């Protein structure tokens, strides 16, 4: 062992003379002395690192403690300090009597400004698979519903003609109108007055976490399974049919059968699960496949992840880059835990261009009503938001129905 250490020290001196000199290892010194110098230097570096870590921890704590002060004072340390200043004052109970000028409505609540709205909606989009995939519309004018016009049928009777040849008439494209009603969703978190008085309380995080968590969870569940009564209509609650696009009425989705009740078809039948998934891909028109994605929950993904083709290759290609989804048969996979598990008759897998198939409508303006009276020692924040959702183009989304017929 001693000879090995001497050999290591000698090699270190050979490749790093500058470091060796810095460690007081002169050319005439032996390997043992050089090794001791290196060990001492390593110990010093370790001690200095510990000191730096302690300083960093103290700075982080100081920055956290001053976060609220920076927001409330409008300092340059916070990107949206001036925008957040009225909201910070309102939540902590320090809003002036004339604060109607910064957005309070007739109910005495606080209406979040468009700048904060954009931040909150971006958080919601990042946390929701349906919001990432679907088309989202911000509705600024007052109203209880949103109307969308889309082409339900292409123009017909076109043709090739010469320069002066007579042209025949063409039938105009068919237009359909979809009405998406807006509904109100709410959350009512509460915190102690003492917590509000604590200078370490981060107001921006409090508001964004509440919206992204409570309201986001309610909305995402409705976009998938909502029944349309006092909430958005989820795409899985629309009628489905095995008929192709040309034979199916608008508003009815097409389903592809798995071939087995509550499961994929058994391999012994000679039909691989990959075949059924491929059927689903090619039931979607080519114009929709360009931006198509899969949607399923984690349990279903765990089943599909193990599937192979006839040559033993996995159908699922795991992502190797952060922020990039895995792919199935070449198309990205999004995970939404509100999708049902594989069961008898369930529609556990969806595939399509959700940008064209489903539309989410948000009414701009998030209202926060501060209640410091009904529960002594606590402050409640009644937060409301209006949103809606519905299928626009039923040809753009396909679902797999786990049934034999």
Our count of helices gives 13
Count of strand segments: 18
- Bulk shape: extended
CATH topology of the largest domain: phage-related protein like fold
What's the arrangement of strands in the largest beta sheet? Answer: 7-8-18-15-11-14-13-12
Number of domains: 2
**CATH class (first level) name of the largest domain:** Alpha Beta
Low-confidence stretches: 11-20, 23-27, 63-80, 96-107
Amino-to-carboxy terminus distance? 74 Å
Q: Tell me the β content.
A: 15-25%
**CATH hierarchy: architecture of the largest domain:** Alpha-Beta Complex
Fraction of helical residues: 25-40%
This entry's quaternary arrangement is single chain
Structural class: alpha+beta
Major β-sheet profile: 8 strands, mixed
The residue-averaged pLDDT reads 76
Compute the gyration radius: what is it? Answer: 31 Å
Domain Phage capsid-like C-terminal: 108-402
Subcellular location: Virion
Pfam families: Phage_capsid (PF05065)
Protein name: HK97 family phage major capsid protein
């Amino acid at each position: 062992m001693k000879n090995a250490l001497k050999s290591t020290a000698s090699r270190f001196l050979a490749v790093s003379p500058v470091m060796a000199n810095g460690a007081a290892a002169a050319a005439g010194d032996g390997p043992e002395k050089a090794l001791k110098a290196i060990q001492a230097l390593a110990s010093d570096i370790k001690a200095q690192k510990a000191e730096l870590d302690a300083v960093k921890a103290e700075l982080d704590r100081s920055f956290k403690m001053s976060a609220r002060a920076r927001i409330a004072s409008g300092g340059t340390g916070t990107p949206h300090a001036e925008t957040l200043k009225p909201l910070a004052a309102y939540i902590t109970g320090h809003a002036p009597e004339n604060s109607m000028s910064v957005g309070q409505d007739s109910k005495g609540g606080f209406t979040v400004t468009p700048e904060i709205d954009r931040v909150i909606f971006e958080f919601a989009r990042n946390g929701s698979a349906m919001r990432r995939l679907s088309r989202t519309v911000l509705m600024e004018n007052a109203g209880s519903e949103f109307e969308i016009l889309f082409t339900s049928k292409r123009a017909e009777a076109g043709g090739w003609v010469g320069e002066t040849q007579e042209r025949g008439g063409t039938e105009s494209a068919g237009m359909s109108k979809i009405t998406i009603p807006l509904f109100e969703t709410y959350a009512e978190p509460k915190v102690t007055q003492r917590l509000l008085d604590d200078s370490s309380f981060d107001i921006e995080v409090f508001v964004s976490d509440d919206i992204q968590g409570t309201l986001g969870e309610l909305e995402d569940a409705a976009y998938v399974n909502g029944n349309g009564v006092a909430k958005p209509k989820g795409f899985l609650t629309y009628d489905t049919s095995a008929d192709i696009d040309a034979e199916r009425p608008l508003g009815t989705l097409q389903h592809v059968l798995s071939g087995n009740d509550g499961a994929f078809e058994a391999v012994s039948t000679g039909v691989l699960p990959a075949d059924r998934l491929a059927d689903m891909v090619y039931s979607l028109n080519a114009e929709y496949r360009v931006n198509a994605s899969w949607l399923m929950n984690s349990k279903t993904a765990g089943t599909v992840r193990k599937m192979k083709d006839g040559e033993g290759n996995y159908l699922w290609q795991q992502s190797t880059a952060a922020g990039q989804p895995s792919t199935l048969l070449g198309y990205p996979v999004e995970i939404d835990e509100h999708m049902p598990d594989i069961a008898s008759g369930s529609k556990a897998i969806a595939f399509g261009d959700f940008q064209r198939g489903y539309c989410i409508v948000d009414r701009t303006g998030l209202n926060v009503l501060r209640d410091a009276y009904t529960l002594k020692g606590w402050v409640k924040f009644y937060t409301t938001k209006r949103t809606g959702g519905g299928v626009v183009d039923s040809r753009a989304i396909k679902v797999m129905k786990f049934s034999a017929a």
